Amino acid sequence: MKNRLYFVSNHPKAQAHAFQAIENEQDKIGYYTLPDQDITPILEYADKIPQSVESIVIIGIGGSSLGAKAIYEFVKPVNDLKRTLYLFESTDPIDINTTLKQIDLDTTHFIVISKSGTTVETFAIYKYVYSLLPKISAYTFITDQGSPLDKYAQEVNANVLYVPQNVGGRFSVLSSVGLLPLVLCGIDVTSLLEGAKRIKESFFEQGYMQEPLLKKAVFYAKNHARYNINCIFAYSESLKYFCEWYVQLWGESLGKHQRHSAFHVGLTPIGLIGPKDQHSFLQLLTDGTRDKSITFIKIENFEEGMTIPDISLPHLESLDILNSISFDTLINMQCDSVIESLDHEGDIPIDSIMLPKVDAYTIGSLIYYYELLTSLVAELMDVNAYDQPGVENGKVILKKKLQKTKR
Asked: Where are the transmembrane segments (predicted)?
């Protein structure tokens, strides 16, 4: 994984401060240690799931589902996976019914994930599914130790795994939250963690990734009022759900009151997929308000070997320039052309990330890169990256509304 910055950001004191701050918080923030964890218990538990199980279903929302979905959808096109992953992420009744029609309850294992153990959406769906399949062995629960869900699981003698201590939901994909469903589908989670560990070591041991991460974080934080929208422009359909994961990570971590002032700050995340969004969003990026920074993500080698045939079409001879070009080359030329055009504007901050290939190691690297970047930017913007008081307020109001319906 390579990161090239097209903007200049030289603030050595701010970079040193940010590095020291997140190096210090490794003792109390749990996600930093996940690349080094012993996953033997997760692998051993996964081996106990019957071979007759054909589908894995996550019942969870936000940080409980987005990370696993992002990884699964990234590697699925290039892997022959042994099980299919489905997700219940919404209380939309049409979506629930549509997903249920795609699975056979008798050959499905459900993973119910709620860090707090009281997530309304998750338990609304779980209650409905449980009414259809009241066989507790068909469920695994993942939650915080001691949560109401943990107590329920113990009461009904169900299988329960725990979210590691001090790992927030949106930072939990490399824990049991993401690893269990992924390994059950046949994804190489050892390689996934190795990719994350490579980025961790490179950053904390003054490797090649330290400087671009620090410079990028400082630029975002120092210019957050001017460039308050950050776009990922990913040139691969396989990164669509990674963009969804990034939107939650970035939005929920950085949209806060500052710790030492009354100011509201934040960076609004937008996920785009190239080249199709060149035909929807690029015009706004090029000629719209100068309030956006853009990160392009490319894949160096798609390993598909597909080439445009050497065919000339009547009246379309001008398009013979496409002949014999590989699709790998074409999509990256499209990306590079957009980068060059935006760089020419001179006042649009851009950078690019080159991923070597589509595999578990690569997506593990990218996920950990963005988790580190989020922590760095939060520190420099003087916000707590790991809480979500705005979300919690909405949950309280919803529960009050639900209580009123029972009166």
From this structure: none
Q: Which of 64, 59, 58 is nearest to 123 (CA)?
A: 59
Homologous superfamily assigned to 28-190: Glucose-6-phosphate isomerase like protein; domain 1 (3.40.50.10490)
Integer angstrom CA distances of residue 194 from 66, 190, 363: 20, 6, 10
CATH number 1.10.3660.10 given to 2-25+191-381? no
- Residue 295, beta-bridge partner list: 232, 351
Which stretches of the chain drop beneath a pLDDT of 50? none
Q: What is the pLDDT of residues 170-181, one digit of tens each?
A: 999 999 999 999
Q: Which residues are catalytic?
A: 252, 279, 395
Instruction: State how far the Cα of 377 lies from the Cα of 14, in Å rounded to an integer.
Output: 11
Query: Smallest Cα–Cα separation from 81: which of 3, 176, 187?
Result: 187
- In a 10 Å sphere around its CB, with 0-12 CB exposed, 13-18 middle and 19+ buried, how is residue 165 labelled? exposed
Instruction: Single out the residue of 318, 291, 309 nearest to residue 220, CA to CA.
Output: 291
Q: What per-residue confidence (pLDDT) applies to 172?
A: 97
